[in-house]
């Protein structure tokens, strides 16, 4: 086997909304890269993992055709390429490994502000402009709606004003683009976020081991993102109430405090965001010396 075949190739968006988040996530997994002069390739300095920087639309095929072992792209792009043009499930050559909690948006149907909408049947016989025909067709079939899908890849939001479509089906995040074009969101077709996919092609054991290691680190990075380490003192009598108030924590560590009567120290990893209100409630329940610390790495 050639050395290059032993290295893991990950396809990432070259320049766009997902690029910085994807690179940041991999950096948090401990990967260091050197970019090639043409900016299309990043060589992994400290692990056998390289990056191929491409348009996000090319990522599913690169992983599906086994050119890259892994890829990071929006679920919207992955779904669109996985389905055939009629919206039927095609046998994709990749597995979706897990969602990465960034790039959140939704593929949604929008209507002119004054147009009535009363569920998917309102789309019957309508013209819907989209650059996601497969995903839209799947939705229409599921809801037994017969509509005409107008494929368009430019600024779709202008299509109703030009009289070319009755509805549009496009990505929405804040909704400000729709509002600026006198459109209102009426129907979610797909909730999306960035996901990591892996080729289905069997890989040499050593390579798969490195992939598993990387995926475990990614999982660790995602787990600690909102997690905090909470330390506090509490009277033993209030322990049950205090532990119940700690958000998303499992079996906290309880340590007796030297020379402090029935007081104990409680240490816990909270897997959910710790709000000021939570601290106030803990204090009211008898907790003192409250500390909330960020977590950097976690492996379970
Ligand atoms: O060049 P390349 O093909 O790689 O990039 P691209 O232009 O196709 O994609 P890019 O960088 O715009 O988006 C990459 C991915 O980010 C998408 O596939 C989604 O998974 C995700 N994402 C998250 C979004 C948005 N939010 C988003 N708001 N992608 C696009 N938009 C656009 C949307 O198309 C619409 O034009 O933003 C506009 C709406 O935004 P709001 O905030 O006004 O609602
Ligand atoms: Zn694209």
Can you offer a commentary on this structure?
- The chain is of the alpha+beta class and 300 residues long.
- It folds into three domains: 3-102 and 194-223, Periplasmic binding protein-like II (D-Maltodextrin-Binding Protein, domain 2); 105-191, D-Maltodextrin-Binding Protein, domain 2 (3-Layer(aba) Sandwich); 228-294, Alpha-Beta Plaits.
- The chain contains nine helices and 16 strands.
- The strands form three sheets. It has a seven-stranded mixed beta sheet.
- The longest helix has 20 residues, at 205-224.
- The chain binds phosphoribosyl ATP and zinc ion.
- Zinc ion (ZN) binds next to loops.
- Residues 55-57 line the site of zinc ion.
Cα Rg: 25 Å
Number of domain units: 3
| Uncertain ranges | none
CATH class of the largest domain: Alpha Beta
- Element order: H for helix, E for strand: HEHEEEHEHEEEHEEHEEHEHEEHE
CATH architecture of the largest domain: 3-Layer(aba) Sandwich
Bound molecules: phosphoribosyl ATP, zinc ion
Structural descriptors:
300 residues, D-Maltodextrin-Binding Protein, domain 2, five-stranded mixed β-sheet, seven-stranded mixed β-sheet, binds phosphoribosyl ATP, Alpha-Beta Plaits, alpha+beta
Give the SSE layout.
Blueprint (H helix, E strand, L loop, with lengths): L2 H4 L1 E6 L5 H10 L4 E3 L5 E4 L4 E6 L4 H6 L5 E5 H8 L11 E6 L5 E8 L14 E4 L2 H10 L5 E4 L15 E6 L3 H5 L2 E10 L1 E6 L5 H20 L3 E8 L3 H7 L7 E4 L6 E8 L5 H9 L3 E7 L6
Parallel strand pairs: 1-4, 1-5, 8-9, 8-10
Antiparallel strand pairs: 2-3, 3-4, 5-12, 6-12, 7-10, 7-11, 13-15, 13-16, 14-15
The chain binds phosphoribosyl ATP (PRT) and zinc ion (ZN).
Phosphoribosyl ATP (PRT) binds next to helix 4, strand 10 and helix 6.
């Amino acid at each position: 086997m050639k050395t290059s075949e032993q290295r893991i190739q990950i396809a990432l968006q070259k320049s766009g909304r997902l690029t910085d988040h994807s690179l940041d996530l991999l950096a948090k997994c401990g990967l260091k890269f050197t970019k090639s002069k043409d900016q299309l390739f990043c060589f992994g300095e400290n692990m056998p993992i390289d990056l191929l920087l491409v348009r996000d639309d090319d990522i599913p095929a690169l992983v599906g055709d086994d050119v890259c072992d892994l890829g990071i792209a929006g679920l919207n792009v992955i779904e669109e390429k996985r389905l055939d043009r009629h919206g039927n499930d095609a046998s994709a050559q990749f597995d979706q490994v897990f969602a990465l909690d960034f790039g959140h948006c939704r593929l949604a149907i929008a209507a002119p502000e004054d147009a009535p909408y009363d569920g998917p049947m309102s789309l019957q016989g309508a013209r819907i402009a989209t650059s996601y025909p497969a995903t839209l067709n799947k939705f229409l079939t599921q809801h037994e709606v017969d509509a005409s899908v107008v494929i368009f890849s430019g600024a779709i939001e202008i299509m109703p004003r030009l009289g070319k479509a009755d509805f549009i089906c496009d990505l929405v995040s804040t909704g400000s683009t729709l509002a600026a074009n006198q459109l209102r969101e009426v129907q979610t077709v797909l909730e999306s976020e960035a996901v990591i996919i892996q080729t289905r092609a069997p890989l040499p054991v050593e390579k798969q081991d490195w992939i598993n290691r990387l995926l475990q680190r990614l999982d660790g990075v995602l787990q600690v993102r909102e997690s905090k380490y909470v330390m506090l003192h509490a009277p033993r009598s209030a322990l049950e109430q205090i532990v119940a108030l700690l958000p998303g924590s499992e079996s906290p560590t309880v340590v007796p405090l030297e020379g402090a009567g029935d007081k104990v120290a409680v240490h816990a990893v909270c897997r959910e965001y710790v709000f000021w209100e939570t601290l106030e409630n803990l204090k009211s329940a008898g907790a003192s010396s409250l500390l909330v610390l960020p977590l950097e790495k976690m492996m379970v």
